[in-house]
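For reproducibility, we list the full input for the zinc ion complex.
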Amino acid sequence: MRLRLWTTLFLVTIAQVAWGQTSTNPKLVNAEPTSPEPSVNSYVVIGATPEQETLVRAQIQVMQPAVYPLRVLFVPHWKYMDTARIFRLHVPAGYTSAMFTHLPSRSVFIDSDRYVSNDSLGHWVAHELGHLAANSASENAADKAAREYRKRLKDARKRAIH
Ligand SMILES: [Zn+2]
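The corresponding predicted structure, in tokenized form, follows.
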């Protein structure tokens, strides 16, 4: 019962977010000069601390993914597990994951109780963006697409040291 209620609330939230984006989608607004929304900022980050949002946006900007997410959601562990169940996500026994991507809604879910460092955040976000780029649930396809993104993150870190 509780799960069903949460499912409904969740879907309503997604619908509202999707609706909000549709109404401000630059492609739907014909030559609107007052909303030059760069694609790099056209996704929403939900549930993050200001530091987390700044960090994940900076990392995604560095990675320049072929396909951007529509939303990146930082959720506490219990919510993360609930959402995985709602999406009937198969998580193999013993497999620890701090994030997953729901391809149809281009939503990346991050377990905010689980990710351990800034570098690991970028490493795994690259994998999730790989799923989006490959438009595939295959882990191999995601990792293959993530390789270039991780290289860009690494290069950016090197530049920052100098
Ligand atoms: Zn994956």
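The helical segments are 2-24, 50-63, 77-86, 118-134, 139-161. The chain is about 55% helix and 10% strand. Both points were considered when choosing residues for closer inspection.
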